[in-house]
């Protein structure tokens, strides 16, 4: 595992240490790793959503949706 040193203002350092002590974390590094994992998951979710939006926008003009016809077709 690589090491990275970061500089934090005292207030942030205290926050990290407190969260690490109060949460299910062994130490401050565990807490920071969890924050990074959450940020990565959030970014992936945003990318997935943006891709779906782009596909929808590029799929052509909208068509009128008839829920009754949909249900009839679904029933067979």
Automatic annotation (TrEMBL):
<comment type="similarity">
    <text>Belongs to the ParD antitoxin family.</text>
</comment>
<protein>
    <submittedName>
        <fullName>Helix-turn-helix protein, CopG</fullName>
    </submittedName>
</protein>
<dbReference type="InterPro" id="IPR022789">
    <property type="entry name" value="ParD"/>
</dbReference>
<dbReference type="GO" id="GO:0006355">
    <property type="term" value="P:regulation of DNA-templated transcription"/>
</dbReference>
<dbReference type="Pfam" id="PF03693">
    <property type="entry name" value="ParD_antitoxin"/>
</dbReference>
<keyword id="KW-1277">Toxin-antitoxin system</keyword>
<dbReference type="InterPro" id="IPR010985">
    <property type="entry name" value="Ribbon_hlx_hlx"/>
</dbReference>
<dbReference type="InterPro" id="IPR038296">
    <property type="entry name" value="ParD_sf"/>
</dbReference>
């Amino acid at each position: 595992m690589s090491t990275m040193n970061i500089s934090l203002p005292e207030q942030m350092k205290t926050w990290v240490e407190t969260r690490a002590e109060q949460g299910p974390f062994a130490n401050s590094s565990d807490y920071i790793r969890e924050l990074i994992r959450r940020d990565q998951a959030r970014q992936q979710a945003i990318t997935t959503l943006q891709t779906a939006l782009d596909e929808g926008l590029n799929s052509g003009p909208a068509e009128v949706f008839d829920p009754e016809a949909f249900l009839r077709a679904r029933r067979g």
